Amino acid sequence: MKANITGPATRDTDLERSQLEAELAETWKTPSGLWAALATVDHKIIGRRYILTAFVFLALGGILAALMRIQLAQPEARLIGPDRYNQIFTMHGANMMFLFAVPVMEAMAVYLVPLMLGTRNIAFPRLNAFSYWIYLAGGTLLWLSFALDMAPDVGWFAYVPLSGPQYGAGKRADIWAQMITFTELSALAVAVELVVTIFKQRAPGMTLDRIPVFVWAMLVTAFLVIMAMPAIMVASTSLILDRLVGTHFYNPAEGGDVLLWQHLFWFFGHPEVYIIFLPAAGMVSTMIEPFARRPAFGYLALVMALIATGILSFGLWVHHMFVAGLPRLGNSFFTASSMAIAIPAGVQVFCWIATLWDGKPVFATPLLFIIGFIVTFVIGGLTGVMVASVPFDTQVHDTYFVVAHFHYVLIGGAVFPLLGAVHYWFPKITGRMMSETLGKWSFWLIFVGFNLTFFPMHILGLQGMPRRIYTYQPDMPWHGINLFVSLSAIILVAGFLIFFLNAIRSARSGSVADDNPWAAPTLEWATPSPPPSYNFARVPVVSGSHPLWDCSDGLAVANGLRTDRRELVVTSLVAAEPQAREASPRNSIWPLWAAIATTVMLIWSIFSPWAVVWGSIPISITLIGWFWPKSIPEDES
Amino acid sequence: MRRATRLAWVVTPAVLLAGCDGWQSALDAHGTSAVSLKQLIILIVAVCSVVWMLVMIALIMALWRNRRERPLPVTPQPSTQRRMTATVIAAVAATTVVISGFTIMSFFATRALGIGGNDELTIKVRGLQWWWSVEYFGARSEERFETANEIHIPVGRNVRFKLEGLDVIHSFWVPSLAGKQDLVPGRANELIIRAEKPGIYRGQCAEFCGMQHAHMAFLVIAESPDEFDKWINAQRQPAVQPSEEELAGGQRTFLEKPCAACHTVRGTAASGTTGPDLTHVGSRKYIAAGLFETTRGSLAAWIADPQTIKPGNNMPMVPLTPEELRAVSAYLASLK
Amino acid sequence: MRIATLLTGLAIAVAGCQREERQLRLDPPIAEALDKVALMPNGISGAPPNVYFALEKPYETNAYNLSQGKRLYSWFGCKTCHGNGEGGIGPAFLDGWWYYGPDMVSIFASIRDGRPHGMPAYRDKMTTDQIWQLAGYVQTIGSYAGKTAAPSRSDEKHTRPAENRAPAKIQFDQGPTPLHPDQGPTP
Fold first, then answer.
1. Which residues of C touch B308 (CB under 8 A)?
2. I need a surface site. Which of A122, B1, B254, C39 has the fewest CB within 10 A?
3. Between C4, C8, C16, which is nearest A150 by CB?
4. Which residue of A lies nearest to B95 if distances are taken between CA atoms?
5. What is the pLDDT of residues A369-391, one digit of tens each?
6. Tell me, what's the ipTM?
7. Does a structural domain hold residue A488?
8. How many angstroms separate the CA of residue B323 from the nearest CA in chain A?
């Protein structure tokens, strides 16, 4: 099948392969040099930066976790004082949620989604660049404040009144709230790009039921981000207003409400968990195919489960507030909805097991991480069902039981698939394979270390150990298990060290990977590893849900795009029929200037409300530069 | 005589500790609601463990079946596909049944927890950074009194705790007696507890409340109604007047130094309300919100340097001479 | 970008690094040294001890100390006479008019030693550390210029704008006539 889109000259139709590639490379290239690197809008370069930065934050957050484990290894330890410890656990939570987990999933999508969809760049690539700079600025703000001993110390949830004006002295809570604004901005930007890319830039023929499940997961996630982030935006903004301007949103004496904060925060905070988990589930559904050597069982069920999880995730925020004294009947409703989310999760688990059952499993490192994921995530899901029950929760809420539960969900449910995904897509991103030996070592160390570290915490919780305590007294029966947990954490740390070592070593000197080392079915493997700046020399045309398996005799391609400017194909929403040739923006330094101006305004506004007024002037100037009208037409039908 | 009592204070908690492994444990339940919660917890955990094992068996079998074959991608066979669809649907249906069961169970368990009785004792508990103020009432207003960090309750009687957060959010939790309930500023929360067995149960703040969240514990002491009446009558009395010269000196220091500005000792001029009421501090098992057993030595250590022992708490380090320190701690230890 | 962020960070550091450090325990010798303020013979103004400068004036620039001072203000019953700064039985702070001068030493001495016409001495009721904290807070109520650190409003009914809003003299509504026309120049 050849879909010709007719039009004027400088098209790729009649060009030889080598000449075509040379022309496309010239059009899409990111020149060398610092300035060009700062101005690039290539989704692969930005995605790589995003992933690397997120893993740096993972390592930093891991160091904090290790510090906490050293402090808790013995009762009444004096290594870290309460003030610093509170900063450390707040930083750990905020860093892992806002600077690692959410961004790394979006970063993987920024890199992979355009490749999986067979397009040449993400939609709104300049916004993409802006999003990365804002994310970097937010992370730097938080870690600088930690270095200066003024990091937030109010927990990653920052409950008022503790974070409010009266009890949150200084600027610590403001820094937390403003860091939220940074990550909101960057996450929202990426979410919008992903929705548009997925809806409008799919390869011709990739109808909605032929999209890889990972892309579906990112689509649902992007909608979750778009709908959940406004709640935390309202919450953090009103907190800053309370603290800086003297409003009374959370002051009960003046008609405010303390619980309003919790409602707003968890209305965002619970979908947040699924913003992290759904991409991971999508990765599993996508990665399981090449390793089970079989298409994933129940495509429709998997996609429906993703969508159902997304919708349900907005209906269960109150289960974080079961002991806050809300009406009992209301609590019971949220018990039911929280339990119900186990159904779509179960559907996915059963489909994955069925896929493995009927497949011929190849036990490479990514599959090991998938198996580890199923083992631990099912535990996390079941403890989730436990804490969804109101009476059960009254005993374990805010104890180490909950700490164990959400680490099973977040590490078992999201980090395991992510590590598998890094091993899986590493050859595509770097052109080199990761070492299988080191990969298996890191898997087993992480898997064993993780379970030994976190499983005993369930028992600690039932034995009455509350969360967020910087120490405990010698007469409590917790020190044995705590010491065991701290020692087990060494195994976990060793596993992560090997993983990082493996990644760094393989990026320099791993064996060279060919285009499709796993014999995988999705489109990103139809282009060289690493992909050229234009992704695909000729835009692929898809006729099934597993393009590289369905047509083993070579992929059909579409012609007719211009090579002298950045063009990509815009297709229709459902059937993915070609609609237009769209010009994709060229490299620009303005997103960086806009990000700097925004950063200045946001940090300044921690100190003075007037920053919003005066700081918006440079932002407007940079935005004018960014959107200055171009002389060339935007698109042609 | 005094040495004997001192010895008793050291020995008693040790014996009690040895007696119960977790005196702050949801699994060591001695309250009506804690017992039913423990049953619920065990039941749910058991069912979930079975579910997990079934899933693991399915996973292992799935991985074991075709582990030696390495062919090209499989094309699903319609008959296998049908069988697998049926199995997955059955598994999802089973999941639904299990979680529906859990939902119904927890609905009824929740309702059962909320039911109170007629013969109730009401106690007001206020959470502050980082200690607990406890207020008892009586038939007449002068029977009202305040104490701190130690709550006595009669066994076998419903006790209604009125919970009030005075600064930030705290959470009142005695795992051996009942589930937790937050103390939220601006809201009136309640919790009903009934102890079924005499004993000492430790509780701790379960909502992060700032720097010393880790050291915000309290004791609930359940005792027979007779002993409880004896205790409450003793607590209603003003503090004993010092009989010995050293104790009188301690009282003088207490009243002249900053101590009295924050603490109340009923029967003296000390009437500060910022810190815990110390009228009968010597009768309490622990000081500083569950940090130390009450002895002259621990009182002296605490007064001498509270910021090293519990950094960030609101008790300042008051400069005292060694004699003053000895006298004040002796005086406080004598306030039985 | 990194350089810009770094510069911004440095700016924050300069503006506020020490105001966030929480000095929870004052060594007894330092506390004793802090008690030795050199007052002028009339009990107004003077020099704080050298250790106060060595510590970089923690009671004026550290947000935690100011917040603690604010808590002490209500715990020690200052409101009984001075209200929320608007005065009552005792003089107001909000008007920015100080009988004994606006410097920390004078305020410290007023609290520690008391003043004529009803201000009691808190020497035996508070520690030196606490008196400095309270003095720092009281000074912010009536300060003439915005500071780098400020306590914020409390969660209670409000009778006036929060301390962190702006210098006091802007907020204080003097009414038709100046409050103390006969008692010296308005600073």
1. 25
2. B1
3. C16
4. A343
5. 999 999 999 999 999 999 999 99
6. 0.90
7. no
8. 29
